[in-house]
Amino acid sequence: MSEIMLFAGNSNTLLAKCIARNLNINLGKVNVSKFSDGEIRVEYLESIRGKNVFLLQSTCAPQNSNLMELLLLADAAQRELAHSVTAIVPYFGYARQDRRIATIRGPIATKLIADLLKVSGIDRVLTVNLHSDQSQGFFDIPIENLSGHLIFLKDAWCKKAYHNPDNFVVVSPDAGGITRARFFAQNLNSIDLIFVNKHRTKPNVLETSDIVGNIENRNCLLVDDIIDTGATLISAAKLLKENGAKKVFAYCVHPVLSTSAVDKIKHSLLDQLIVTDSISLSEEAKKCKKIKQLSIASILSEKILSITREKSLNLNLTQLNKPSEITIA
Fold this sequence. Notes:
Elements: E1 4-8, H1 13-23, E2 30-34, E3 40-44, E4 52-56, H2 63-79, E5 84-89, H3 109-119, E6 124-128, E7 143-146, H4 149-162, E8 168-172, H5 178-186, E9 192-202, E10 205-212, E11 219-227, H6 231-242, E12 248-255, H7 261-266, E13 272-276, H8 283-287, E14 291-294, H9 297-308
């Protein structure tokens, strides 16, 4: 494994350490600090010449600081003649700004960030559940978008085994998430798929919603990619419970959890929120009994190996129908 070197910025060092442990390597030594005026300073503390360098950094809050750390790490790596530089960005900040709205004179931030990553010297990007699949077209370098929902399947199987397996449904909190919810349902023996039809008047403000499908006296598995303020999932859980749902579990890959989201979840009708470690949880979130965090380190570790060995990695679980057959978690 001497050809692999893994380094981490300040956004998610615990995930980086877990990946390094899986790969049986030491996490690379790098100094990422700030000058007195706030400028970011980066210095590799060991030779990376001729190595396959992997940089792990989620561009979550503080987004601009974490993004700048990644860009400087990449620039320093190419100047030190690394053989290749791969950015592992489990949570890709600015991914929700992936289009121009006709009534707003704004940028396409996702495209801009993609260009910055290339200019900084990054050869390849690995990310998890990019907000929209079509955003991959913004990149002029290879990008691989992995599914964090694979990690959730074992947990879902356990819940299905513990509760009445005939009374489970998968629920998409909006029409746009039906594809990911369908994947989830298919891997749970094709249980029923429901979706919440919602109407927004502006970002983070939910106006009206209704349920398409029957959820009365059934356990619901909500599936989404990002939980930010929590408004969507909390409103969906309330709607489901008001319409007769027994229990409501939510699977969400990226725990952004901004503003007072944790407190709202604590007092919501959600029975449990299951997230990944694409973003480190705050101390408040760690103490919340309704929030459970699972690691995506196994998926990222296997992907690093497949890239280094120049072999494909197949994490397609559509043929699985037993919890014991899911071995990646």
